[in-house]
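Continuing the batch. This is chain 6 of the set; chains 1 through 5 are on the previous pages. Same settings as before, nothing changed between runs. Recording input and output for traceability.
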Amino acid sequence: MNLIERLKAAKHLVVFTGAGMSAESGVPTFRDAQTGLWAQFRPEDLATPQAFAAHPSRVWDWYAWRRGLVQKAAPHEGHIALAELEMKIPKMTLITQNVDGLHHRAGSRTVIELHGNITRIRCSECGEPCEEFPDHSPPPCPLCGAYLRPDVVWFGESLPREALEASFRVCETADVFLSIGTSTLVQPAAMLPFKARELGAFTVEINPEPTPFSASAHLVLREPARLALPRLLLEAFGQPA
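Output for chain 6:
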């Protein structure tokens, strides 16, 4: 059975996306975001609890700048095709390492965000989410007064336990697993496509560049997601994105 036939027959499709997916929308990858004023800093100097404790305004302003880049970006055809696929298959789970919220904006509904979301903020102490972005840099938590911070996972922090466990759990029932635009280098998330294959899923890598998972995937498509995904949607279900 080829990929198109497997997509048509799939009861549970699991999709795993990384920075390459967002880069096709013009969102700089984590390290490519070091330009202009921020070129003098390494990402590690701006994305750790220690950096925030030492220079809260600097870290807040960097994330505000990155948030502006995300707001200017739009979901591409690949994002939209995934949202369309979700409506064609009985069950689809989308796991993303990206923090830009583009999958939600494209219309995807069942999304696990492993690294958080840059468009949200929460308290650095009590964890309470905040709906508004105050002008103060960085703003205080309205409940406890501690600094608010981006709702993302920093270096030295663990991935949200619930999200990580849910991601590995859905691999148990996946018929087809698409690994899209991810380097499969950052652990423990990088183990997801390997785990899916081990548990019996038909695994596909969609990435212009080779990765550590390439040799293990059942099928590799060396092309951008914005081209590959609309074509798969059209061939499987007769509906372009």
